[in-house]
Amino acid sequence: MGFLIVNRISLPVGAPEGEALSLARRRLSSLGVPTRGLSFSVYRRSVDARRKKDIRFLYSVAVTGEMPTVSDARLAAADIARATDPVLPEPVGTEPLFHPPVIVGSGPAGLFAALLLAEHGYAPVVLERGGSVAERRRAVAAFSGTHLLDPETNIQFGAGGAGTFSDGKLITRVNDPLCRYVLSRFTEFGAPEEILTLAKPHIGTDILSLVVERILDRIVALGGEVHYHTKFLSCRTAGERLVGVLTDRGEI
Ligand SMILES: Cc1cc2nc3c(=O)[nH]c(=O)nc-3n(C[C@H](O)[C@H](O)[C@H](O)COP(=O)(O)OP(=O)(O)OC[C@H]3O[C@@H](n4cnc5c(N)ncnc54)[C@H](O)[C@@H]3O)c2cc1C
Fold this sequence. Notes:
- It is a single chain.
- This protein is an alpha+beta fold.
- It folds into two domains: about 1-85, Alpha-Beta Plaits (2-Layer Sandwich); about 100-250, FAD/NAD(P)-binding domain.
- The chain is built from seven helices and ten strands.
- It has helices at about 15-30, 70-75, 110-120, 135-145, 160-165, 175-190, 205-220; strands spanning about 1-10, 40-50, 55-65, 80-85, 100-105, 125, 225, 230-240, 240-245, 250.
- The strands form three sheets. Strands 2-3-1-4 form a four-stranded antiparallel β-sheet. A three-stranded parallel β-sheet has the order 5-6-7, covered by helices on one side.
- Helix 3 (about 110-120) packs parallel to helix 7 (about 205-220).
- It is flat, with a radius of gyration of 23 Å.
- It binds flavin-adenine dinucleotide.
């Protein structure tokens, strides 16, 4: 769905957020746009610390509702941009799968792939060489004390991959509308709502590991399977067909 983003609303730190919304409304009104019936919400907030004696918050405000018929050039001149919500590809194919999709690794990439497959009815099998989040917490604590590395369950390997014990800085230089989709899914699984608006969201390891556990629980609740301590070794093929997946615990 289309919406507008009113950019560059500068306010002193401590000014109520509502002021940013009022200024956005006023800016649209100044273009002759009737603003009754439109909804205003904070889209992003960053810190402008270029002048040390006057540190400010820079807001972008999202405007939803019936979109005004103002030319893009006039909007741009007022620092207002048009935007659209990301559209996820619809599931393709109508034939049922006879074998579940197999995902190797439960890092951020595998986790989201498994979540979306599970939500679209293709209950996946996730193979993870390391242990669960709880096992990883114990292994990481033990490593700090003894310096003895468990080569399979550690700060890199196990549920959630390297993401679980990362700093939880949710920033990227990739400018893709799906980034916002990922953040919104994080909030659904326990991350604070502020990550949707802060320019540099940072949730820390404690919340991140909780989010990872909840995503894995959802995958399982939707019929998926997560096999810990199961290392993918190779694929078995017959001609061009994949007929088996070999792991260190046997073939699936
Ligand atoms: C200390 C640290 C801090 C970080 N901080 C941040 C941060 O703040 N913000 C940020 O955006 N990024 C951060 N990163 C980077 C981020 O964690 C990675 O970019 C991200 O985890 C990569 O995701 P991935 O799914 O591609 O791979 P991985 O997270 O590496 O996941 C791969 C998974 O596959 C499993 N696996 C591997 N081989 C096999 C096999 N043969 N069979 C079965 N399972 C297997 C592994 O055990 C692992 O769980 C940090 C990384 C580290 C190490």
